[in-house]
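Before we proceed, please read the two lines closing this message. Report back on whether the structure tokens fit the sequence:
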Amino acid sequence: MDDETIRVINRRHLAHDWPTDVISFPLSDPDDPVLAGELVVSAEMAASTARDVGVDPRSELALYVVHGLLHLCGLDDQTAEDADVMRQREAEILASEGLINTYPLVGLLSADDQGRESVSWPR
């Protein structure tokens, strides 16, 4: 997706009026034997962020996909503790596949007054 399209989806389904990196839609119940879901990923955001931090866009895109899949598996990142668990699992999964974890390069700082993540990119 591009940023504008994912922004529309984010607004329609989550009432957040801004583009985001990935949105997860579970299509199975937690007790179902098979996990099913849909991920909507912003390739435009991945390319932009990757350019800013100097990595291959596929690495940033891989982080978004892993993050979305972890949401489908029931992990959340709404509290600091949950976010720490999410970051740890992302790092483990990406490392197990020989992929770069771009999250530490971006350096998530905080959420703004509307709940949007704000990031700064090291120069």
